[in-house]
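Sorry, I am new here, but would you mind making up a protein's amino acid sequence and the tokens describing how it folds?
***
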Amino acid sequence: MSQFATPQPLARPVGRPRAFNREHALEAAMRVFWKRGYEGASLTELTAAMGINRPSLYAAFGDKATLFREAVERYGVGPGRYVRRALGQPTARLVAETLLRGAVTIATDAANPGGCLWVQGALVTSPESSPIRAGLAGLRASGIAQIRARFDRARSDGDLPAGTDTEALTLYITSVMHGLSVQAASGFSREQLQRAADLALSTWPA
């Protein structure tokens, strides 16, 4: 028999959180919020999806509200990146087409929860969660302002008719875009929603 005892694994200190991948955890949280909304996503469901316990969640993200804000940011550079891509299109019509088709594609992808986190994440909340609702409303307003500015530039460049009401055009396109996401969450198919998007584009100012 060897004179040396077999080394035993060191015991993990009591209460020490296990290591986890923060980006993977945030991705999982984003999908829970996308599916349930801010208030519908419980800490139990969030921690289960993220593979961590509550102390680890608080240590890494602060609180549920901060986690939600980070999840929304992640959505913007992930599934929602089609909006930035749309703003870079060479014509206003291609901007609108990319926005509508992007909304349909993301909202009806079987790999996604359905709908749009920006639209449905916190439409109706309790008074305690009103800052979350206001934050998402502000984010949507910022996006609308960017689209309006892009259409204004298109009008100045002659890409849109001189008399185009860019405010109304922006409101129309974004209302359709948001509505497509809501209808996707209600169960309408990609083919149905693409037809609706095509109809909206058929009214483009000439």
About this structure: The chain has a mean pLDDT of 91. Residues 80-203 form a domain with the Tetracycline Repressor; domain 2 fold (CATH 1.10.357.10). The radius of gyration is 22 Å.
